[in-house]
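Lay summary. Proteins are chains of building blocks that fold into shapes, and those shapes determine what they do. In this project we predict the shape from the chain. Here is one chain we studied, written as its sequence of building blocks.
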Amino acid sequence: MAAELSGKVAIVTGGATGLGRATVELFLKEGAQVVIGDVDTRGEELAKSLGNAALFKQADVANAEQVQALVDFAVAASVDCTSWSTMPASGAQRMNASLMMTSGIFSV
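And here is the predicted shape, written in a compact code that computers can read:
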């Protein structure tokens, strides 16, 4: 595989440790921008250590509102990976977002 995920934004739930972390690292290697979603706040340090292509959003997948907030965060962030934490996304920009989710086993 070589940059098979280039131009994609992935949400990896449970991405702070273990298999989730390995998935984050593989997706980054393959060119994706990655949002790490986890209840474990170690995901924040992981995202910082991985550079501009990774962000962290604390979320509990057992809580539907937190999952929605995670997806909204990823869509907004997909506009400009270099300023993910501050860049708001307009409706038109959100419509153009290419988003996939792993561990939660769904894609958009």
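What the prediction tells us: Helices lie at 18-29, 42-50, 64-77, 91-95.
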